[in-house]
Amino acid sequence: MNTAVLSESVQNSLDYTLFSWSKQKGLNPIDAVRGEGVYLYDSNGKKYIDFSSQLINVNIGHGNRKVIEAITSQLQQLQFVYPGMSTDPRGQLGKRLAEIAPGNLSKTFFTLGGAEANENAIKLARTVTGRSKIMSFYRSYHGATYAAMSAGGDPRKFAMDNAAVPNMIHVHNPYYYRCPYGSSSEKECAERTLHQIEETLKYENPESFAAFILEGQSGSSGCILYPQGFVKALHTLLQKYGILLIDDEVMSGFGRTGKMFAIEHHDVVPDIMTIAKGLTSGYLPLGGVMMTPQIAEHFNDQMLPLGLTYSAHPVACAAGVANLEVFDELNLVSNAAEKGNIVDAFAARMFEKHQSIGDWRNQGLLGCFELVKNRDSKEPITPWNAHPSQMEPTQRMLAKVRELGMFTFVR
Ligand code: PLP
After folding, report:
1. What separation in Å is there between the alpha carbon of 339 and the centre of ligand 1?
2. Are strands 357-363 and 366-371 parallel, antiparallel or unpaired?
3. pLDDT by residue (tens digit) across 271-327?
4. Which among 272, 278, 386, 290 is positioned nearest to 98, based on CA atoms?
5. Model pTM greater than 0.85?
6. Which atom of ligand 1 is nearest to the CA of 56?
7. Residue 164 gets which letter from DSSP?
8. pLDDT (tens digit, 9 = 90+) per residue, 3-60?
9. Which atom of ligand 1 is nearest to the CA of 143?
10. Is 166 exposed, middle or buried (0-12, 13-18, 19+ CB in 10 A)?
11. Cα 256 to Cα 248: distance, rounded to the nearest angstrom
């Protein structure tokens, strides 16, 4: 039993607020008070290295003066106008995004975060195509609002299953480490997965599909890397049936994988791309749906059926503009690629040393260890969709990591 006296801020947070994705009893959150660069400090002065950039979103690090000053200066000038007005930060951020986005993605509808971006991307795809079905991977996460959650396959959605948004069809990932089709090479796993996707499309009526939504690179479902050529072949298959590709870059975007957007590793330009997290490095909430001119033009003479009070919030947009300048000044995208090589070398050494590491998958700085009880059987340390009572090893790892002064993500 934890008998430590909790600080007032922890006690108030526990008594009057709810914490995501947890049973509320027995929580013991880090009482964060300050951040600088890759470090966070709690109210006892303990220092933590923020190894996952919080929720894989504080891409430029904590306490960046340039972004803080851009936010405060915008606040002094104009703190809010409704989304029907234009503002300088809105225009500037839209323009910069068009410059850095893959191919001809050139127009952005701003949201507050990632789930909302996907929610609106799904609405957009359905409106433009006049079709309703959305295809996605079982091992994926697209956010916690209804349509985004229904599109994802993460078991966190099971609690809402009885009210899932309809017309979401899931297929297996090309997950070579545990290939659902028992393949003996990555190439074979990719081919068999693609074949099954086409079969599913045919059984489900390909002409009823508006879009396929996938993560630019898989994140919280286990950093499952796409086999070489897979995304391109999938894109070609989708084009054959007039199905749009929605690329969710919420986690994998903004340099995380060593390219500005992860889809760039695959030489594919999606029809719609969703962004959030690293767009402002978490300094303020902001997300967006980017689209090709062809999709945007659909609404030249038709109402755009999307809207949010805080769409294109001027202060959040000012944070985004300054944040992207920091990316350029510090060469953060190439830095992520270089640092990724160093991390890969360390990971290879850890793989030699620790039998519990079944697999290491990484691109740039978006990577994870898959932990197993036994390398031959590949039995996971904690089962897929583990019951809280089966989570003890995970909780123990988290506690140890914290004790050692590190914060990271364990799933
Ligand atoms: N899409 C992906 C790939 C994500 O990883 C996340 C969050 O982790 C989301 C969407 C949801 O973003 P948000 O939590 O900002 O709604």
Report:
1. 24
2. antiparallel
3. 999 999 999 999 999 999 999 999 999 999 999 999 999 999 999 999 999 999 999
4. 290
5. yes
6. 8
7. P
8. 567 899 999 999 999 999 988 999 999 999 999 999 999 999 999 999 999 999 999 9
9. 11
10. exposed
11. 13
From 142, 280, 281, 409, the mutation candidate for ligand 1 (largest count of ligand atoms within 8 A of CB) is 142
Q: How far is the CA of 217 from the centre of ligand 1 (A)?
A: 12
Q: Read off the tokens for 384.
A: 């897929």
| Ligand 1 centroid to residue 20 C-alpha, Å | 13
Nearest CA to ligand 1 atom 10: 142
Residues with CB under 6 A from ligand 1: 55, 113-115, 118, 141-143, 215, 219-220, 248, 250-251, 276
354-to-52, 178, 321, 405, 410 alpha-carbon distances in Å: 21, 20, 43, 21, 17
**Angle at the Cα of 308 (from 303 to 313), degrees rounded to 5?**
115
- Please tell me the distance between residue 377's alpha carbon and the centre of ligand 1 in angstroms: 32
Query: CA-to-CA distance for 171 and 189, rounded, in angstroms?
Result: 13
| Residue 188 in tokens | 């074979």
Q: Strands of 406-407's sheet, edge to edge? A: 32-36, 39-42, 47-50, 406-407
Give the dihedral of Cα atoms 320, 321, 324, 328; nearest 10 deg.
-170
User: Ligand 1 centre from 365 Cα, in Å?
Assistant: 17
Six-digit token pair at 59? 């891409």
pLDDT at 1: 43
Task: Note the pLDDT tens digit of each residue in 71-108.
Answer: 999 999 999 999 999 999 999 999 999 999 999 999 99
Q: What is the DSSP letter of 185?
A: S
Q: What does the block give as tokens for 15?
A: 């008594």
pLDDT digits (tens, 9 = 90+) for 137-179: 999 999 999 999 999 999 999 999 999 999 999 999 999 999 9
State the distance from the centre of ligand 1 to the C-alpha of 142, rounded, in angstroms: 5
Mention every residue, 6+ apart, whose C-beta is less than 8 A from residue 172: 137, 138, 180, 181, 193, 196
CB-based contact 232:155 (threshold 8 Å)? no
Chain segment 171-222, per-residue pLDDT in tens: 999 999 999 999 999 999 999 999 999 999 999 999 999 999 999 999 999 9
The span from the CA of 226 to the CA of 143, in Å, is 21
State the helix-helix crossing angle for 65-77 and 314-329, rounded to 10 degrees. 150
